[in-house]
Amino acid sequence: MNRAFALLAAFSLAMSVHAQEQKPDAPLPGVQRIAGKWQWTRAENSCTEVYDFHADGTLAVISGLEKTDNTYTIASAPDANGFYVMQLKTVKDYGGKDCADVDSDSTHQENTVFILFHPEQPLHVMCMTPSPATCFGPLVRIQE
User: Fold this and answer.
1) pLDDT above 60 (res 110)
2) Residue 101 pLDDT exceeds 60
3) In this structure, which of 39, 42, 51, 118 has its CB flanked by the most CB atoms within 10 Å?
4) Is the confidence at residue 5, as pLDDT, over 60?
5) Strands, DSSP E only, in the chain?
6) Could you tell me the pTM of the whole model?
7) What pLDDT, on a 0 to 100 scale, did the predictor assign at position 28?
8) Domain chopping of the chain, boundaries
9) Could you tell me which residues come within 8 angstroms of residue 47 by beta carbon, excluding any fewer than 6 positions away?
10) Which helix (H) or strand (E) segment is 14 a member of?
11) E strand or H helix at 20, and its extent?
C-alpha cells in the first residue's frame, strides 16, 4: 500500500469514527469550515493545487498552470456519514494544463463533490462520490 493511500485510509477511518461520535445539535456550518485557502500536492507529478474558498460563495483555483474562477455552495451540516455536499460551477477557465495533465476548457462546467473534514486538524479530503475510495487529498489549510 503506498503512503498516500495509507494516509487517506487512516483519515477516512478517523472521519467515520468522528461521524458516529459527533453530536448533531452543534455542527459548524459548511461555509465557515471551508472558507480559507487550502493546498494539496499530487504525489504522481508533484503538482500543487490551491483552492481559495471565500465566504461569499466564490472560489479561485490554481492547478498547475491552470487558473479558474468558480462559485460554490456547501451544505450547512454533514450527512449521516460526515460528508458535506458541495456544488461547484466553473465561471471562467483561463487555460493551461492542470495537475491532472488536462488542458481542456471547463468554463460553465458543474460538479458535485463531497467534503470530509478532519475532526481535529485543519485538513479535508475532496471526494467524487460519498465514498472515501473516491477522495483525493488531504488538502491542508494554509490561510484562514
Assistant:
1) yes
2) yes
3) 51
4) no
5) 36-42, 47-53, 58-63, 66-74, 84-93, 110-117, 123-127, 135-143
6) 0.81
7) 59
8) 3-143
9) 41, 63, 64, 98, 99
10) helix 3-21
11) helix 3-21
Cell numbers 493551461 correspond to what residue?
96
The phi and psi torsions of 82 (rounded to 5 degrees) equal 95, 0
| Distance (Å, whole) CA 140 – CA 142 | 6
Give, in order, the Cα–Cα distances in Å from 28 to each of 24, 33, 50, 76, 111. Answer: 10, 7, 23, 8, 23
Indicate if the pLDDT at residue 4 is higher than 50. Answer: no
Per-residue pLDDT tens over the stretch 19-73: 444 444 444 578 999 999 999 999 999 999 999 999 999 999 999 999 999 999 9
Instruction: Quote the CA–CA distance of 65 and 47 in Å, as a whole number.
Output: 9
**Class level of CATH domain 3-143:** mainly beta
Cα-based distances in Å from 32 to 60, 75, 110, 133, 141: 17, 11, 22, 26, 13
Q: Is the CB of residue 72 less than 8 Å from the CB of residue 59?
A: yes
